[in-house]
Amino acid sequence: MEDSQSVASLMDSTSSKIQQLQKAFAELESHRAITLNWKWKQLEEHFHGLEKSLKRRFTELEDQERDFETKIVKSKEMLERREKAVVAKEQASLERLQEKRDAAVSAITYALGKHRNSFPDEAVVIDGEDHGGVSVMEDKPPDAMVSEKAVKELTKPSNGENVVVKLYPDLVTLCQKMDTEGLHKFISDNRKNLAVMREEIPVALKAANDPASLVLDSLSGFYNGEMPTSDAKKDANLLGLRRTCIMLMECLSILLANLDEDLIPVIISEDVKERARVIAEEWKPKLDELDVDASSGNSLEAHAFLQLLATFGINSDFDQDNLSKLIPMVSRRRQTADLCRSLGLSDKMPGVIDVLVRNGRHIDAVNLASAFELTEQFSPVALLNSYLAEASKVSSPARPGSTSPGQVCFLCHILQ
What we know:
By secondary structure, the chain is mostly helical. Helix content is 66%, strand content 3%. The chain contains 20 helices and two strands. It has helices at residues 2-12, 14-30, 37-118, 148-155, 170-176, 180-189, 194-204, 211-217, 229-232, 236-257, 264-267, 270-287, 292-295, 300-311, 320-324, 336-342, 349-358, 362-371, 380-393, 405-415; strands at 124-131, 134-138. A hairpin with a 2-residue loop joins strand 1 (124-131) and strand 2. The longest helix has 82 residues, at 37-118. It starts with a helix and ends with a helix.
């Protein structure tokens, strides 16, 4: 900047120098006999041209200097933003690492408690060297008591790199991003291949940082508060969303069933259970509005509620008798038997089957009696004959999805 100022001051003094030169030239002319006016005009034009050229060049240099300074400022700002982004990523990585460490410590503590309860006085040889024929025995440190498999499972990267599904890799990406809305849409768009997705979703859930929270978040749209219950049963989109919610909870149960027992409390933590309890308490009153007979044993609302309790292990917080009263509302669902076992309702099945028989649901009663080995108490042949007798008294056509009397006769013939 100082050089520029000095150049500018020199250029400003050009005019005064020209004037001085003009006076000197005039004095010289006075001593000559021949006038030099025509020569002076040429010199004056030449000097003014030089002055304009210098000023133009100086202006260009100033513009270039300003542009250069602007670029420097922008570069500094960009570097600062990048530095902040790098710091933020490092902080996020440290936080994720700390979460994994906390999860590992939790699993270690849990495993240590189980180990101590099973082997309270156990001592472990940690030094195999010979010390006069006596092995050195010391208590094994807590960190060594958890299985290496559990620790590796907990501390493995959750970025989805090691999670592979064959036909629908997008499931891994959606779970990795914890994108519940995208997950619902993807399942809906590929509903024709639900059987395949049902196999791949439990694997894809491993890519989620918190698979239990991902599934709980997916339940947010199960009940549309602005839609009456009667209209909800006619809304195809809502019915599809509810089926997806149930399937996601079932897939989480499959994932948990294939994990080491030490890992389950890490995924289904107390905070997760508390969230599930809150959702269950919100859903429970809505079941009172349902018509048991109208559901025909195929209620999505009752199924979702029971699946929520089973998946997140909170069924003990609810009265077992009340839960058993919901089974007739889901008796036609293919998952009913497994769901009852998960909820610890196996001993309630005789009462449930009695309710089904009294309500003319003999086919559902036969299915449950067979699933829980209660056929001696509830003979399938007797139940089907009873159903046939009741059906013959009814002249109205059978409801859609019900079993015809001809089918019942065929079943009776097989079972006899």
